[in-house]
Design brief:
By secondary structure, this protein is an alpha+beta fold. The chain has three domains: about 210 residues, Immunoglobulin-like (Sandwich); about 190 residues, C8orf32 fold (Roll), CATH 3.10.620.30; about 210 residues, Jelly Rolls. Helix content is about 15%, strand content about 35%. The protein has an eight-stranded mixed β-sheet with strand order 5-4-9-2-1-11-14-13, covered by helices on one side. It comes from mine drainage metagenome.
């Protein structure tokens, strides 16, 4: 993680949609079911799957999926029953964590969940009730959810094959399936069938995989098959995009979005969301009164926005309560306002309601907070988060409104995430930039590209003044200011830490650049307004910062902070994630020890590409060694084929960060 990366991990997603069809390691089932009580023999399909030889390409995997088949049987109302059959061979001890199961909520029903194993010695085993484990939904720590998980843990070892079959009545409002065809372990054979009633059509879209045409195995009953899907293993690939953005998948629609044309499909999905949330943002009298008080005397459009935004960000606690469709649908604005808590859908709902009172139009925007997961070419409800698009009136021009997109109708929209309580309105968290979302605006719904902001919208400025002693000790102070998402990350760090944790964390962070450092004092200055820079001031002492070489003294002018990203020279096929656009500026001055002058300085550095630039220079005046550098990142991701250029850039930056000046005695 570079210095410009996120300082803390925050859960901002709210399970806006829990995706269907998870392939391995997850599983979830229900009341009054048979879990291994019926003494059923291993089914023939399972016996056949267990005979599948382990392919050579899976020899280093922890496990391999030999067979995975889904059948979605859709009734006349569009509700589906999903059957899954899966067989997994354990290849290494750590592969025993690869298991299967089923999830359910109050409006779903698991008809059956059976599990068996062919043990390594060839003996069959049927799961007992004690092999099943039921758990609540713990994916978000601040959550109350009725969704349950039931996984099976069979007594298997290396060489065993796990065999599972589930049959589940799905939610009545879900009329699509997301087939996740790639996993962290390889898959030998997988299939999806969608059995539709007469007269019902479907549409399909593929992500990171060439489109495969189905076979009609019966009237309006469609089957897709894929063989030999490699694992997507990113563990040894530095600076990679999100796993879920790279994994191959396919979505099938059989509801209103089962129409021709990608734009039409997105429009149908947005219209469905619009209808789902249509009565949710209705302002109550209490909301009207509070909003009118907040915006009273506001001099301009931005002032109204910022007052409402900071109220929702700071006064409405983030908390998730889901039961059935409430995992998709927000609570009513009046309830959110009265209870003073809600998830991302709820915060967005209250934001829209309060903006309506102010005469400002705003819309729901379902997204995923992992860049690249939502694909403009794959219309789907797949996502985990909700934000808003605020319509900017004609004639309003304000430099503080940075995260602006233009819709197909020519209207401008400010994209804002009210769940992120540390990023000012007008800006946008870095992890959402460069993604896609659905502008849910009824018949005008569309997929929109979330903006990638200019470097000036994010970053830090550090100024350091130090004194170097003849014994190599460095003493001094650093004053820094942080804006945009970088400042937001620091605010989050302060929000979730105490004084000791802050000292320990920052001393450890500085020690990455300055070994044996002691943080003598530190102070954070956090303005109440989120659009003001957050400041951090500290003093430090570092023994043996400079090193002797005979009569010479070697000192590194770049004292603290590193802007390099993790890299390696292995050929890669996935893009390079640059984390965030932004600017990082450093000015460090080191007062030389008595009796020393500069004998040699590192060379000036000038690097300019379309994805980043880096300039560094060195100078000496009045026995003060001065180091200045400016680093700008202009893109959030570059393709894999630019790896050689990226490596050269990072290597040169790293060399500059390590470069030393030579001091000699007068």
């Amino acid at each position: 993680m570079s210095w410009r990366g996120r300082l803390v991990g925050m859960v901002l997603g709210c399970r806006w949609l829990i995706s269907a069809t998870m392939l391995v390691a997850l599983a979830w089932p229900a009341q009054g079911l048979i879990f291994g009580r019926s003494k059923l023999p291993v089914p023939q399909w399972g016996l056949d799957a267990a005979k599948t030889p382990t392919p050579a390409y899976a020899k280093n995997a922890s496990a391999v999926i030999l067979y995975d088949e889904y059948i979605e049987t859709v009734d006349g109302a569009g509700r589906a029953v999903e059957r899954e059959r899966e067989a997994i061979r354990i290849l290494q001890p750590q592969g025993r964590g690869s298991t299967c199961g089923v999830s359910y909520d109050v409006d779903e029903k698991v008809n059956h969940f059976h599990a068996w194993a062919i043990l390594a010695d060839g003996r069959p085993y049927e799961a007992e009730e004690s092999d099943f484990r039921e758990e609540g939904d713990t994916g978000v720590p601040v959550m109350l959810s009725t969704r349950k998980e039931r996984v099976v843990h069979l007594p298997v070892d290396v060489g065993s094959v796990e065999i599972c079959e589930t049959d589940e009545l799905l939610e009545p409002y879900r009329q699509e399936t997301n087939w996740h065809i790639q996993n962290e372990i390889p898959v030998v054979f997988e299939a999806l069938e969608v059995d539709l009633p007469p007269g019902r059509s479907y549409s399909m879209a593929w992500h990171r995989h060439a489109a495969e045409q189905p076979v009609e195995v019966a009237a309006n009953h469609w089957r897709w098959e894929i063989k030999d899907m490699p694992a997507l293993d990113l563990r040894d690939i530095p600076s990679h995009p999100e796993w879920a953005a790279l994994a191959a998948r396919m979505s099938v629609q059989w509801g209103d979005a089962a129409v021709a044309g990608t734009e039409n499909q997105w429009r149908a999905i947005g219209a469905w969301v619009t209808q789902l949330e249509s009565d949710r943002p209705t302002p109550s009298p209490e909301i009207v009164s509070t909003t009118e008080t907040l915006i009273s005397g506001a001099p301009d459009f931005y002032a109204k926005l910022s007052r409402i935004a900071e109220y929702v960000q700071q006064d409405i606690r983030y908390f998730v309560v889901t039961r059935g469709i409430s995992g998709l649908q927000a609570n009513h604005a009046a309830d959110i306002f009265r209870n003073r808590y809600g998830d991302c859908k709820d915060k967005t709902t209250l934001m829209i309601a309060m903006l309506r009172v102010a005469g400002i139009s705003a819309f729901y925007v379902p997204v995923d907070d992992r860049r690249g997961v939502v694909d403009a070419e794959e219309p789907s409800l797949l996502g985990n988060h909700m934000i808003t698009a605020i319509e900017i009136p004609s004639g309003v021009e304000d430099a503080r409104l940075l995260a602006v997109v233009k819709g197909e109708n020519g209207k401008r929209y400010l994209i804002f995430d009210p769940t992120n309580q540390h990023t000012a309105i007008g800006n946008l968290p870095s992890y959402e930039q460069g993604s896609y979302g659905t502008l849910a605006a009824g018949a005008a719904s569309q997929v929109i590209a979330l903006p990638v902001l200019a470097p000036e919208a994010n970053g830090s400025e550090r100024k350091g003044e130090f004194s170097l002693l003849a014994d190599g000790t460095l003493e001094g102070k650093v004053d820094s200011s942080h804006v945009g998402p970088t400042g937001g990350d620091l605010r989050a760090f302060l929000n979730f830490s105490d004084e000791k944790e802050r000292r320990d964390a920052w001393e450890h962070r500085i020690a990455e650049s300055v070994p044996d450092v002691v943080l003598d004092s530190f102070e954070f200055v956090q303005p109440a307004s989120l659009d003001k820079p957050l400041e951090f001031h500290y003093t430090l002492t570092a023994r043996q910062y400079a090193h002797t070489a005979g009569t010479l003294l070697l000192v590194r002018p770049r004292v603290v902070g590193s802007d390099t990203l993790p890299v390696d020279t292995k050929a890669r096929t996935v893009g390079i994630d640059l984390e965030a656009t932004g600017h990082w500026r450093d000015v460090y001055e080191i007062h030389l020890p008595e009796g020393y002058v500069v004998d040699d300085l590192p060379d000036e550095v000038k690097l300019d590409t379309d994805f980043a630039s880096y300039h560094a220079r060195y100078s000496v005046k009045d026995k003060v060694l001065r180091y200045e550098r400016e680093y700008e990142v202009k893109k959030v991701e570059i393709p894999a084929e630019r790896q050689p250029e990226f490596l050269r850039f990072e290597s040169r930056v790293g060399s500059d960060e390590r470069a030393t000046a030579v001091l000699k005695k007068e």
